[in-house]
Amino acid sequence: MNDRDYLLKLKILNNRIVELMRGKKIESVAELSRQTKICQSVLHKLINIKGSPLYKKRRECWNSSVLKLGDFFGVLPEEMFNEQQLNEPFLTNEGERAIDIRATTNILNHQEQQYLPDLIMEKEEEVKALHDMLDTITPKEKKIIEMRFGLNDGAHTLKEVGQKFGVSSERARQQELKALRKLRTLYRNRNLPQSKEMNNET
Q: pTM value?
């Protein structure tokens, strides 16, 4: 018998949209649909991270429902979605994991920093790896990522990033995505063995 007596079920949602809903005191997708006149099934896909907010035939264009949703909340479309949802929507937003009584108690008491130490360690290592990788992209790209994800201070909107560099919010989004693609490639390759050419040079 193991001591993992409880099953933790996870459901990942787009918290940016959830927070916007809370700000307008909208408690359900049905209510959001009524107020925005957007189909519930479309809203479910966007909130449950199961559909791309980009227009299928022209991937650089926003879906009309996303534009309508942004107008309703008074934000730019890119402020409602991260790069994952733009390019690689999840096949599922649900998962589960067996946990023990200590982890269960800490989670229910909102002491997230005290449960599953192995995951905490992984997180610290990932943060260090991220800072190392940031040094490999251009200074401008590094600053954009730092501003967007609040690595030095609070997170900034695309509009604020654009104002910082004298470009439009859309241009700032494109530069952010370019930097994130570089970081993703570096992250995926970080544990690969060096090529023969690199080994021969050392």
A: 0.49
